[in-house]
Amino acid sequence: MKIDRMDLADCGNPVELAKKILMQILDIKPPIPIREIAKALDILKIEPIKDSSFEGGLITPDDKSDGCILYNESSSNARQRFTIGHELGHFVNPWHSPNSSGQIMCTKNNMTASTFNKNNLQEKMEVEANQFSAEILMPTSMIKKDIIIENAGIELILSLAGKYDVSKESMARRYVDIQDEPSAIVFSNNKKILYFCKNKDFPWLSISKNSFLPPSSLSLSFQGDNGGLSEWEENSSDVWLSESKECKTVYEQVLVQQNEYRMTLLTLGEIDDEEESDLEESYRIKF
To answer: pLDDT tens across 9-42, in order?
Structure first.
């Protein structure tokens, strides 16, 4: 495999960087060969680390002429692949600079970062590395073709996670991000919210990190063994949304995972024409 790094010069957009790399590879298909891509981009070694405080790392000189990627050896293969993509994102992005020791070391929290303070360059670097990894492992053009399935849900997310050799968590975030329909994904453990993601068309959620799952939610009440998947269930919009008037209902599906972890997919119900007119009238009165 050959990749011309000159074609990537001066491109600081993480998504465009990933697309430029994939465009140079003929007949690319999932699962994306991330290790081979890294080596074609002058990564000399990809090695495991035993330090559990870090999920991954990059060792490289200031000019980034070559580099070494580190990944947590105790993580699953799917998570290791995302970590390699993340560190490669640091390597190919021209403004992501290593510290004085020639290193960029990343924690597990860095691997899920999706927002940053505009004044914090370190946070911005981690978010951009995640954007790069998501795009190169789960290319937008490919995923869009895969999710054009009516009434798709967590079953499709699980299938695509296997197809692209990524974690269920990574694919769930990607699914929601690319999905045209209003969608949100909620990750919880022992009845508490770990974090959640939503696309731009989904209304604001009434939950927050470390808050408990909503009392009337299927996520809280569903009983199942590890791997147990609920049917879609219709729920009142005020169970999950801060502005419940924005839609009629919320549909909810839950996957039970190991050690009391749960993944919840949310979509919106339909509003009929009469209700939509009533809502528009109420907004006119309000404003």
So the answer is: 989 999 999 999 999 999 999 999 999 999 999 9
Q: Read off φ and ψ for residue 113, nearest 5 degrees.
A: -65, 130
pLDDT at 149: 74
Neighbours of 90 (CB within 10 A): 26
What is the 3-class SS of 79-144, one letter each residue? HHHHHHHHHHHHHHCCCCCCCCCCEEEECCHHHHCCCCCCCCHHHHHHHHHHHHHHHHHCCHHHHH
101 found inside a domain: yes
pTM value surpassing 0.85: yes
Comparing CA positions, the residue from 200, 248, 256, 208 lying closest to residue 228 is 256
Where do the H-state alpha helices sit in 216-272?
A: 218-221
Backbone angles phi, psi at 126, to 5 degrees: -70, -40
Asked if residue 285 is part of any domain, the answer here is no
**Enclosing H/E stretch for 277:** helix 273-286
Q: Does residue 279 lie in a domain region?
A: no
CA distance 131 to 111: 10
Percent of the chain with pLDDT over 70: 92
